[in-house]
Structure formats: C-alpha cells, structure tokens
Amino acid sequence: MIDEEVFFETIGSLGLIKLNRPKALNALTLSMVRKIHPQMIKWEKSPVIKTVAIVAEGEKAFCAGGDIRALHDWGKSNDDEATGFYKEEYLLNRYIKRYPKPYVSFVNGIVMGGGVGLSVHASHRIAGENYSFAMPETGIGLFPDVGGTFFLPRLKYQAGIYLALTGSRIKAADAIFLETATHYINSDNFNKVIERLSQGLDADQAIEEFSSKPGESEFKKISAFCEMIFKEETVEGIIKNLLKENSDLSKKLLSIIKKKSPTSLKISLKSLRAGEKIDFEECMKMEFRMVNKVMSDHDFYEGVRALIIDKDNEPKWNPKNIEDVKDDFVNEFFNSLAVNELNFD
Fold first, then answer.
1. Structural domain tally of the chain?
2. What is the 8-class DSSP label of residue 116?
3. Is the pLDDT of residue 339 over 70?
4. Left if phi > 0, otherwise alpha if psi is -120 to 50, otherwise beta: which for 143?
5. Per the confidence metrics, is the pTM higher than 0.85?
6. Catalytic residue chosen out of the listed positions 67, 137, 299, 302
7. Known active-site residue 137
8. What values do phi and psi take at 186, rounded to 5?
9. Which site among 31, 106, 174, 213 is 20 to 30 Å from 310 CA-CA?
C-alpha cells in the first residue's frame, strides 16, 4: 500500500488521505484523482467517519500542482485524457467544496495549482510553518483554475489579482491574513490534531487546541499598494499603474508580469473579474470552457517546453505582446462548448 501514489487510512472516526509522491513534490495525477473522489464518497456515506483530512508525505511540498508534463504530452497527441483530467479534477474540487462533513487540509510546504484545489476549498485549512502558496499558471500559458476564479477575486486588497498575474508566493502568516488558510499550526503538531480527530473530537475543537499565531504577514505591508495597482479591469490598466508608481516594487512586478504569457494574463484577469459575480459551480464551468481552448492553443505547450522540458526559461509567446492579444481572441476562451460541457448532475 505504501507504494501507492495516494493511500487512505480509516483511523477511528477519521478518514485520512495521504498524498504519496514526495519525489515529484506530490504532483497530482489522474489516477490519484480517480482514487480520492470515490473514497471520499464512501466516507461521506459511512456512519463511522465524522471527519475527512488530507496530508502529504515529504517535507518539501503538500502538492506542487497537476502532472503538467503528462497534460502536455496528452494534449500534443490529441489524447482526450488532457481535457478529461481537468474534468475529473474539477468535479473533485467541487465535491470538496460542497463536502457535507468537515474536511481538513494540512498544508506544510509548497502548494500550487492542483494542490490548491485539494486544500483551499476545505472547511478547515491548516497552514504549517513552511506553507508556500502560489498560483503560477500565467508563466506556463495557463490560468489560475481549480476554483481559482472563485476564491482569488474574493481575497481582500486585490490580492487574488496580484497572485494570479505575478505568480508570487505567500507564506503562512499571509495565508492567515488573507484567509486562504483558517488556522496556523506548527507541523510538529499535525499528528496530534489527527489523533484528536480520530477520537471523534469536533474539528473546531481539535484544531483550536493547537492553533497559534504565525507572526506578521509580509503581504500586509504591501496590501494598500496592491489594492491600488490591481483594481483595474484590464491588464493594460494594471501595467499603466505600475509604470506610474515607478517604485522598486512596481518595477520588479512589471518585470515579472512582462515574462508571463500575454494571452494568459488577459484570460486570467477576465475570468477573475467574471468570477467575482458568479457562484462556484458557474466558475468551474467557465474554467472548463477555458481549459478546452487552452489545450488547443500555442502558449501552454510553449510554456511547458520552456519551463519544464527544455528548461531554457525563454518561452516564445504567441501573441508576443499584451497589445497584440485582441478582445475577440480572448473571448474565444469563454465560448460555450459544442459538446462536453462540465455538469454537476
């Protein structure tokens, strides 16, 4: 069992999911999704299981995202598994979001992309001392998905727009400040919380017993700046604000943004602004429409080539410049699908 990519334990009244690909930073595969979802359904129906929790093996990462290389290869060969992965992943994300029992995510280390989808929709989101959250998708020709279009625009101080467009990381204190995490607990105490949960203790009580303060948020120091810069409806407006500000921080962020896929920047911002006004299910449907277009477009494959395969870190984006990404092209990413829409029936 220990060789499995993900394995499950029933400990008293707790159902425990363990991600088990530490050498791959616990990157999420299709087979892992296909094991987690039905197991959670079983635990939902079980009269014994009171709480479900998710943890990860290894010290570096909770889950550093989806298996991007596999998605690249499937997409390149026109394999339906490419969009199929996203469909099954998004269905799992929505199931976690609406789970009727307490679902507790224990995150210590890197959490990005698909790992965010497994953890940020939890009813109880615990950050350890090495918590490191990022949504770096614009750097590989993608967009912040797995429900990112719902939770990111709802973060205060335009933090979600900042995180989405720049791919910047936040730590545990920032996560508590922005509420991407609900509690801070030192990772040495994770197993103690798990033990309490297995004994049937209420999730709120078990977690509060070991919660502490994570220190001062670094993001808090730049929160007013971010709110001012990233409040715009267009990427061009945000860039204009950064140029006008002309500070060391604005110059740094401008340099970062200019390295991202111009297409990804535009579709990401449009999706986040749309996501502010719609419910979670509509966000997931929108994301699935977007990812179908992304998987038939140029930039995703070029981004994966440059950052993951060849590692030359010099993607040749097409279109190359922000001003060349026209509204008609952006709108294509949001069109209804002729077939295969995401449904939650």
1. 1
2. H
3. yes
4. beta
5. yes
6. 137
7. yes
8. -60, 135
9. 31
